[in-house]
């Protein structure tokens, strides 16, 4: 019984001490990485093998000690073959008890180490899962931000397209307005040129008629009236603005020949009939 108590205390202390050391080493590996966990598993197998070797060496030592003690007690105390046979059977019983005890302790050690390994793996999985969840949440937030940014950019692009289309419409409208104005200006120019040509023709016809009438009257009236008419025509040829240069500008639409080219810009109305000036024609008289 003393031998069993000693073996039980030694094996139990050894198993608990080894398991505690393996737990500490496992925690270190857990805080390090999964590679450290594999290293600690290898250390655990080495420790288990060393424990088995120590148990086997203790068993061999105890068997050797029991064999020597039994042989000595047999030689000293047993006078016959029956007593030696009883001692041999007692030795076999003790050996079987020791074997059973060692087997039981080995099974207990295996169960304890297996439970510790399960706990460490569960703790490792919990920690890895928590880190994975944190990373997944971070990635989800990044994806949400990227999605919002993409939606904002799409809205901005749609606004730019709408503004571009609006500016294109405005440009087309302005271009149409410019073309319409150019066409209107061309029509006005054509009409003005036609009016100027008609006015010039009518003015020339009137002047020719007046000259013919004046010539006939001069012929009928005699020489004194001819001289007065020549003086009136000479005075009519003088510019009404400066009264020094000859008139060379025909004002329209009244068709009065009463201004020189230098004074034409100062007249808004005809100085003869006060009609509003709408145009003028320069006449070259030789």
Automatic annotation (TrEMBL):
Residues 111-191 form a coiled coil. InterPro entries: Znf_RING/FYVE/PHD (IPR013083). Residues 208-222 have a biased composition (Basic and acidic residues). Keywords: Coiled coil, Metal-binding, Zinc, Zinc-finger. The keyword Zinc-finger applies. It comes from Vitis vinifera (Grape). It holds the Pfam family zf-C3HC4_3. Residues 207-237 are annotated as: Disordered. This is Putative BOI-related E3 ubiquitin-protein ligase 3. One of its GO terms (molecular function) is zinc ion binding.
């Amino acid at each position: 019984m003393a031998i069993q108590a000693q073996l039980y205390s030694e094996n139990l202390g050894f198993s608990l001490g080894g398991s505690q050391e393996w737990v500490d080493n496992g925690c270190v590996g857990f805080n390090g990485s999964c590679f450290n966990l594999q290293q600690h598993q290898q250390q655990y197998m080495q420790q288990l093998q060393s424990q088995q070797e120590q148990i086997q060496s203790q068993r061999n030592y105890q068997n050797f000690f029991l064999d020597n003690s039994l042989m000595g007690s047999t030689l000293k105390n047993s006078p016959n073959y029956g007593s030696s046979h009883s001692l041999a059977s007692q030795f076999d019983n003790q050996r079987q008890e020791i074997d059973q005890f060692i087997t039981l302790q080995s099974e207990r050690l295996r169960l304890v180490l297996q439970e510790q390994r399960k706990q460490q793996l569960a703790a490792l999985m919990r920690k890895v899962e928590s880190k994975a969840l944190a990373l997944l949440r971070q990635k989800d937030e990044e994806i949400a931000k990227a999605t919002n940014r993409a939606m904002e950019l799409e809205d901005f692009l749609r606004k730019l397209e709408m503004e571009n289309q609006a500016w294109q419409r405005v440009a087309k409208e302005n271009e149409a307005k410019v073309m319409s104005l150019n066409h209107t200006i061309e029509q006005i120019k054509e009409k003005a040129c036609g009016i100027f040509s008609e006015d010039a023709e009518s003015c020339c016809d009137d002047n020719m008629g007046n000259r013919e009438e004046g010539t006939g009257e001069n012929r009928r009236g005699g020489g004194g009236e001819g001289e007065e008419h020549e003086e009136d025509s000479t005075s009519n040829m003088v510019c009404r603005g400066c009264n020094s240069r000859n008139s060379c500008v025909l004002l329209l639409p009244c068709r009065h020949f009463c201004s020189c080219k230098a004074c034409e810009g100062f007249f808004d109305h005809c100085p003869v009939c006060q009609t509003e000036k709408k145009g003028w024609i320069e006449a070259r008289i030789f």
